[in-house]
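Justification of computing resources. Each target in the renewal requires a structure prediction run like the one illustrated here; the chain below, 401 residues long, is used simply to show the kind of job we budget for.
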Amino acid sequence: MKITSEYTLEDLRELVAHKQCEDFEPYAYVRFSNEAITLKACLESLVPFFSKGIICYHEPLPGIKADSSLEIAQEFVARNPGFRLVKYPFGVVYHGLEGFFDYLYKGISKYWLLHAYSQYALLHLEELARENDDLSKAWIFKVDCDHVFSQKLLEYTKLYCQLKYKELGTNYAFFYKMNVRKDVRKEGIGAYNKFILADIANGYDHVVVKLDQTAPFQMFVRPHRGGSEEENRKKTQVYELQRFAKTAKSLGEKTFLNSIHFDFEKLYFYQKLEEEKVKDRFVNGVPYEEIDWQKMVKQIPEAKIDPEFFTYENVKKIFMSFNYPQSKAEGELYGRDAIDFATFFHDPKYRPENIIQEHNKVWHAREQITDPEALKALEREHRVLCKLTEEGYLPEIGYFS
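Resulting structure tokens:
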């Protein structure tokens, strides 16, 4: 059997079976923080393809009100016990926060940065895979909570990775993002008719990778120069990247598209945005109802496997399922702009060293814990924290000139 751009899922299933490709266990790798608008739709789109995974969260920083994300995640895990919900014990500082650059070089803890949060979640995923005896066969799929996934395209991704792992030894690949945006200039909360396909692009931040081919996440800073001090601060990029083992081998530019990315929902409804920034998001794009689907599947042949997923009617249905705030004013209470950064930075209770000290007190008194499950959870957390805080474990921040 020869694989071409004109195959069905059944063809690919038969090919993988015929070549006796090694099976693997897909694990969902999920992090969230005030994602209630899209979180439920995202999580529900993961099953039954995923039966296992880590869902990691952190508490909102001072000044930011918690939305219903935690309750949504708890309810999902109660129905899907192969998933484990874990709480990052430290605060997480996002680079766009007011005051971030005032403190970046003046004592900000690396445990407040995204790469530490990301690595904590990955370490807990390793713990879960070890408990399931899956360490050698686990592959992780990075899931952001503003994506809604296709079961058929997730299976396509898995089968194709199995095939290429057998043939070429490749053990990681990147997903493309299909960015779909509701036109908030024309419709507000509660209206779902005007949305566009903005673009389909590889951002190199969504990955499927064999678990034993991962390496600790790293933060990178790309300074902006040439503008005013305020402009340079606003346009400087700070982001975390998944790193890979020296033995990792990329599949290359294969166009995996297995989800729709609703990238503007939280940004718009939870933040105060300048009018020009809102407008800019809708300058380029195609009204969704006008998309030529025949042309679409010629460019991305595997889209033929699940054409119903991309229809205007289905995307509208997904938009209608979102958990919007009652008003934009309410939503802004959940957004990052509401932070009291000075309180967070100076209050000792948020300092990672003090939180670790409190954990160690509980650890040294663990013989008093009578609940076996609580003791197992504490032991798991202790292993993760010991690894995360090991000297030299997390890479230094990288700076681009």
